[in-house]
Amino acid sequence: MVGLLLRYLRTNSWKQEMKVGSKNYRTIWLNEANDKVVCAIDQRYLPHEFVIENMSTLEEVCVSIKDMHIRGAGLIGATAGYGMHIATLEAKRKKDGEAYLQEAAKKLKATRPTAVNLEWAVNRQLQAIAKVKTIEEKIYVAKQTAQLIADEDANHCKQIGEHGVKLIAAISEKKKGETVNILTHCNAGWLAFVDYGSATAPMYEAQKRGIKIHVWVDETRPRNQGASLTAWELLQQGVPHTVIADNTGGHLMQHGMVDLVITGADRVTNAGDAANKIGTYLKALAAKDNDVPFYVALPSSTFDWKISDGVKEIEIEERNADEVKYMQGWCDGKIKTVLVTPMESNAVNYGFDVTPARLITGLITERGISKANKKSIQELFPEDK
Ligand code: MRU
Fold it and tell me: Is 332 a known active-site residue?
């Protein structure tokens, strides 16, 4: 069955953005027949198998975030939103429902520390739930809020595409319609959000408008989100792309082969420092040295309004070193794991790094493009100081 679907996916390019085969997909949704079950694309199996995970307990939602069945800042936030909905259903069966909800919020927030969308979504749920009294009301409000968080995420990404495409269009015009080469790191595509993606949304919009683009896809060790997820997305969409080893970007920039870098972000300070997948900082340094514009695309849920110094104040997730020592791939019709270092060698696995605002040309948000500094960000988001 999975094999059939994969064959179908390989031979059917998407007619519209964010379709898998002929069907429109979001990365997360409520089961139509049973709204107590949350469904999500399990990204551990892509690009080789298309698997959907059903979650009906808070514990399952926490595992799904922590073990990266789902991932990416926007999707982590949306999943946490649905997680709180499930928590209200569970709270109904508890003696002290209120305490259970507070505990659930704590548990969700502890799953992954860097993407601020997680904390943002859980706090939004807590505030919404606190406004009503009975558990039935809380269940209803949490479900509505979860849907709202997901819908907003999709809409904001679409708007990021509409603003960001102007940058691509301007370069295309300057190049007299020649292909615009864009480099991206990790997966800030629709799989990292609910729909469209942040870094990829301008690319999909450019494609829709007939602007010729080509995307350099950093493989993004250790978990290879670029090689496995971004490449899969772009392939489905029919966007020309080339996967490169992580260390290739600097060389390409020196030789004029990159017109623009667009990455996503997991947490951005009120002064424009951006935490993103490990390796992003090195790309920004290379871009600066070669006068290549470096943009970060994010929905406003990724701003951390409380902090201004990203290097000092953003907690960087450290994951299991085995993700560095082992690699996964498709072999003999199965996903297999292989060791790529001496068994005895130590490894360390920092998930993210911080790119200081001075290296960022601009931030592409749902409200428009700002410079990476306090003043310019506040002009776009005056209510969020
Ligand atoms: O560890 P992940 O895969 O959850 O990391 C998130 C990312 O994919 C990237 O850092 C991405 O560029 C920003 S998330 C929109």
Answer: no
pLDDT score recorded for residue 312: 98
What is the position in ligand 1's atom list of the atom closest to the CA of 71?
A: 4
| From 17-26, 96-105, 138-147, 309-318, the region with the lowest mean pLDDT | 17-26
**Model pTM score:** 0.93
Per-residue pLDDT of 240-298, as tens digits, reads 999 999 999 999 999 999 999 999 999 999 999 999 999 999 999 999 999 999 999 99
List the domains of the chain with CATH numbers.
Answer: 5-152 (1.20.120.420), 161-384 (3.40.50.10470)
Residue with tokens 């994951």, as numbered in its chain: 319
Of the candidates 221, 204, 222, the one whose C-alpha atom is nearest the C-alpha of residue 213 is: 204
Q: Cα Rg for the chain, rounded, in angstroms?
A: 20
> Can you read off the two tokens belonging to residue 353?
């790094």
Residue 92 CA to ligand 1 center (angstroms) comes to 34
Residues facing residue 276 across a β-bridge: 353
As a whole number of angstroms, the distance between CA 16 and CA 1 comes to 24
Give yes or no for residue 71 CB within 6 A of ligand 1. yes
Q: Across the chain, what does the average pLDDT equal?
A: 94
Choosing from 153, 259, 266, 353, which is the catalytic residue? Answer: 266
DSSP-derived secondary structure letter, 350: B
Q: What is the pLDDT of residue 38?
A: 98
